[in-house]
Design brief:
Blueprint lengths: L2 H14 L7 H14 L7 E2 H10 L1 H6 L7 H7 L6 E2 L1 H17 L1
Antiparallel strand pairs: 1-2
Helix pairs in contact: 1-2
């Protein structure tokens, strides 16, 4: 599996999760992206780690028109507000975004 693709998938989906049921393949890729972007080997990702991934792959992200999450996006997905985005928080946040979209 291509490392760059995994990081792009992570960055794009944290920014634009639609709330649709997340396909198994994407879930596996997201788990791997969380692992690969995790530089401190603590559970979850900090904003600093996400930002480092963005910076590392900025040229490719830009060339592919893949939006990157803002710190505000990160904080919204960090449901318990502890500064660390865990995979389960990301997943729950994505599902909640979809539910809100379906209500409008």
């Amino acid at each position: 599996m291509n490392f760059s693709f995994l990081v792009f998938t992570f960055l794009a989906t944290i920014y634009s999760t639609t709330g649709m049921e997340i396909p198994t393949e994407l879930m596996e890729e997201e788990r791997l992206a969380f692992f690969l972007c995790d530089s401190d080997r603590m559970v979850g990702l900090t904003w600093k780690e996400v930002k480092q991934c963005e910076e590392r792959f900025a040229a490719v992200l830009s060339a592919q028109n893949i939006p990157t999450p803002s710190e505000e996006d990160f904080e919204a997905a960090d449901l318990n507000g502890d500064g660390t985005l865990e995979f389960e928080e990301w997943k729950q946040w994505g599902e909640e975004q979809g539910e809100e979209g379906e209500e409008t």
